[in-house]
Amino acid sequence: MKISRIIPASVLVLAGSAGLITAVAQQPGIKRTELQRHDLSTPGREMIQVRVDLDPGVTFPLHSHPGEEIIYVLEGVWEYEVEGKGKITVKAGEVLFIPAGVKHGARNVGSTKGSELATYIVEKGKPLVVLAQ
Fold it and tell me: Of 72, 74, 83, 128, which sees the most CB atoms within 10 A?
């Protein structure tokens, strides 16, 4: 009886999280394009690669991931607010590593479009982006 209540509740929570992610990603000035997704040789883990584009002055809000994020800035100047490290500026051609579960946000502080290639090594089946409360 309890399981029949838990499963629908879990589906609603996951669907709600996906809706929030979609809502943030579809804000004016933010574009997230999934490029590839593959299971890894480590059970329960997957790699997801996403191109993120931000218009000048646009901020992607504070969030975390259920695994590591490896960032390569393709163009522009980004300012990342990383929990425990403060603000970090990363320019085109530079990289940044975000550990699993660490809250962070990003802002395009340049005068042109900013683009990054984000590679995630995450737990399969969990929401990729968890917005901070």
Answer: 128
The per-residue pLDDT for 84 is 96
Q: Do 34 and 88 touch, CB atoms closer than 8 A?
A: no
The pTM of the full predicted model, rounded to 2 decimals, is 0.80
Token representation of residue 10: 């879990």
Residue whose pair of structure tokens reads 């490029």 in the numeric block: 35
Q: List, for residues 34-68, the tens digit of each pLDDT value.
A: 999 999 999 999 999 999 999 999 999 999 999 99
Q: Which domains occur in the chain, in start order? A: 2-131 (2.60.120.10)
Structure tokens of 42? 């480590």
Nearest-angstrom CA–CA distance, 71 and 79: 12
Residue 85 is encoded by which pair of tokens? 């490290």
| Nearest by Cα to 37 from 131, 130, 125 | 125
